[in-house]
Amino acid sequence: MAIPSEKLADSLAVLKELQDDGVIAIRSKDLTRTHRERLLRNGFLQEVIKGWYISHRPDDKSGDSTVWYASFWQFCASYLESRFSGEWCLSPEQSVILHAGNWTVPSQLLVRARRTSNNITNLPHGTSLLDIRAELPDARDRVTIEGLQLYSLPAALIACTPGAYKQHPTEMRTALSLVGDASELLDQLLDGGHSTITGRLAGALRNIGRTRIADELLKTMKAAGYDVRETDPFESQSPMSFIRRERSPYVSRIRLMWQEMREPVIELFPEPPGIPPDTTAYLKQVEDVYTSDAYHSLSIEGYQVSHELIEKVKSGSWNPDADEQDRNALAARGYWQAFQAVKDSIERVMSGQNAGQTAEDDHRVWYREFFGPSVTTGILKPSDLAGYRNGPVYIRKSMHVPPNREAVRDLMPAFFDLLAKEHAAQVRVVLGHFIFVYIHPYVDGNGRIGRFLMNTMMASGGYSWTIVPVEKRNEYMTALESASVDQDIRAFTKFLGECLNS
Questions:
Q1: Average pLDDT of the chain, as a whole number
Q2: pTM of the model
């Protein structure tokens, strides 16, 4: 890439000032025409709609959606506030989805506003805004999260249509699990005389095991003279009960997703053959596939590695001083070191240790081994390998937005608890991989660790070590996207089953 001219450097300095101020949605008036046109021409700005822009990387491929998906929510918050000056709110259904911790980018974001004419604004990569003229909830029934105006949780649950329970059952159950007491709902139900809605909420709460709150809603409304008939708006019984209020919506969603996805996995993934008696022979088979596994796993992540490079670092002839600038060599060496640690984990699992507990104990070791060579060469500090990520992370081309850093710290213990208690090996294999990359607890290396986790769980059921071939990367990523965005685990289950049998 050519060295930027002095004029381009000036324009980039202006752009950096906006970025340092936290500006994501850049308006025409934020830049002079000269700076704007220069940044557009050199690929540092991307136009979203007329007069509105986001920062862009000039080395990103044309049509890459990653930058847009990463900017979506903050862009919409700034754009909507600019248009409607506080007189707007996301729909109650979308409010529930966000309260439930699901920040997946929607194809169309539904917005309520007092001063609008039912307008669709087309946005990049098939997304859009639909703003409809409608009354807004009172100020006391609105909250602002990440710059987005939402219905408060109680107001959203009351305003949601019956169809939301069928279209978004996981999010509705998650939101209901956050209700701590009937009083959070009763003020609005009584003031509005909402007998039908009360019956629906009581049935929904009973569906997830919140019987005490359901009974309190019914008794209070009936005592006030309302005729309330309980109805369950869900199409099926909740796969789990929430006896008490769950503090983290993210944890509730993960537990619900796990329970909802178990049956399709058990139905579609091959039965486990059982742990073989000869552990030494099994580990020898694992060692034999190392070169091929490393080649495919690293290639999936975009590293340019050859079988020769992999064998070089395996044999110990890797030279940190000579190869310190070669990210491919560093990745290959880290993969070799992590692979040895995973073999140790598998050996303990095959000797009878709980697979989920072993993974919880050891996954940080795998991570440190991955990036140990970068510490050796001084590219990373030892402190960079301590703990889970401290900021946001985005998955290339994915509409799924991984949970925030605070949620990760609640989610990881809950995830490993599910893994440790799961008795079906095929569920540990599929959901162990999927949920780990869904959470995306690290800044880098999540895919590689997810596949190591998958193969540790494979060993726990006696399955052979399974390679995800780089030639099927698009199919692999599409199946993960379907599970993350649509909560449909079937394609991913079938895909891993085909890899197992190939």
A1: 92
A2: 0.91
